[in-house]
């Protein structure tokens, strides 16, 4: 074997080793990112999850509004990327506890009975004005001592939460997407899809509650979303009971 041939063979071997090491490194990093994503969402390989949809998506023919469809598509892509499976259920048929399967609950407490139950149990510091009569506080959020009013098409708010209810470490989380309007639910699912890695780095696999603001949805749709605040502590602290007005009765 001549010197030139030997150099060529050695070069090919070195290139092959480098390519193999590069492939192994990329595979390792990809698997590590996948495991972190699966841990954050509580979705190991071949696990089951629930997509709980509200009244508009749970009619007799399971007709789904446009923004609900987009929200479900965002979540379905996340679930598929984790190698898990999803079951879509209407809010009034999801009669089970939480912790066994990851749950994604979409919709406000008026149209989603499951969401209303979760808010009472898990978010006692959040109150949604469900008064059907028109008024400045219709649909407003109260979180702790702060109130967030709805301005349709201009400023709309949505609560995005990952909750484990203080259960065991292996318990699967519940994700809540509680918005003032349907488009805000879609905005929250898109925000989670885009920022789940950053959220996982910041919060780990613990509970958190974020208040998001959807800006000018009339022009930008669900794409322009701002983080207003991390309201975890306020949302999990029960609101004080409203003061009862006393009526004095004087003897005649």
Rg over CA atoms: 24 Å
Low-confidence stretches: 244-252
Side by side, the strands of the main sheet go 2-1-3-8-7-9-10
Q: Could you tell me the number of beta strands?
A: 10
Order of helices and strands: HEHEEHEEEEEHEHEH
Q: What is the helical fraction, as a range of percent?
A: 25-40%
Distance between the termini: 124 Å
Q: What is the mean pLDDT? A: 83
Strand fraction band? Answer: 15-25%
* Structural class determined from secondary elements: alpha/beta
User: Which of globular, elongated, flat, extended, rod-shaped describes the shape?
Assistant: elongated
**How many helical elements?**
6
Largest sheet data: 7 strands, mixed
Transmembrane segments: 6-29
Keywords: Membrane, Transmembrane, Transmembrane helix
Protein name: Secreted protein
Organism: Streptomyces kunmingensis
Question: What features would you describe in this structure?
Answer:
The chain crosses the membrane at residues 6-29. With 252 residues, this protein is α/β, with parallel strands linked by helices. It contains six helices and ten strands; from the N terminus they run H-E-H-E-E-H-E-E-E-E-E-H-E-H-E-H. A seven-stranded mixed beta sheet has the order 2-1-3-8-7-9-10, sandwiched between helices. Helix 2 (66-81) packs parallel to helix 4. The model is unreliable at 244-252 (pLDDT under 50).
Task: Write a concise synopsis of the structure shown.
The chain has 252 residues and is α/β, with parallel strands linked by helices.
